[in-house]
Write a structure and sequence with these properties.
The protein is an alpha/beta fold. 30% of the residues lie in helices and 24% in strands. The chain has six helices and twelve strands. The protein has a seven-stranded mixed β-sheet with strand order 3-2-1-4-7-8-9, with helices on both faces. The structure holds zinc ion.
Amino acid sequence: MRVYISIDMEGVAGVVHADQCRRGADDYPAACALMTGEADAAAKGAFDAGAEVVLINDSHGDMRNLDLGRLDPRVEVLSGSLKRFSMAEGLDGGGFDLALFIGYHAGAGTQRAILDHTYRSTVAYAVRVNGRPINEAALNALVAGAAGTPVGLVSGDETTCAQCRALLGEVDTVAVKSAVGRLAARSLHPERARAQIRAAAAKAVRERYRFRPFHIDPPYSLEIDTVTTAMADAGALMPGALRSGDRTLRFDAGDVQTLFRALLALLRLAGTGV
Ligand SMILES: [Zn+2]
């Protein structure tokens, strides 16, 4: 049995500020250790439940945050970037029985959610699919779902957990902190967060038949509201992109992989428009 873990940083217990999440900042090494601890806890939970293969995708920033020597030696790790499917790299090819999203955060424009954003906080003011606001967990779940893999567990702050239950339907969640604003939270101690993640991962893997691959009916209409009009100007250079509003880019796609790759490409291109 094969389990996939995508680990982000903003939703890890104790992380509340972008300085903790940025290479070079004083706080960053400590946050990497917290992130590594939660990734390891999820992996151990999956192994507790009988997983034979656990692949951990380092899904934050430059994707070289995990301290590999402190992970369970049975895991495999996907690190570095660029990856065509980014936080969901490898899920696109199928072959996993269950995916676990650990350390996740809420979508751009969500209040009382630590470091809310959708893939590029400085570029995307909001992202919608078929008119509905969406977050990274749901976008990555779409990639997994298209290849037949369900998502069984999401961890992050309380708001993120509630948002993921609303978007994904049947999914287990572990809230490791409760945000009092975008940059402040009341958090569990890392050891308690890890214990809860390990137990929840084991339960989700053991009960994996409860979860269904996440789908949104095609065709897809992706909309990105950019922070500035210059970003929309730049994003609109991409063939197939439509300028559907002063600060809104639209891209229509018939399949999930095209939708996802258009999202990443548009955000990157729009980011050049400053
Ligand atoms: Zn991140």
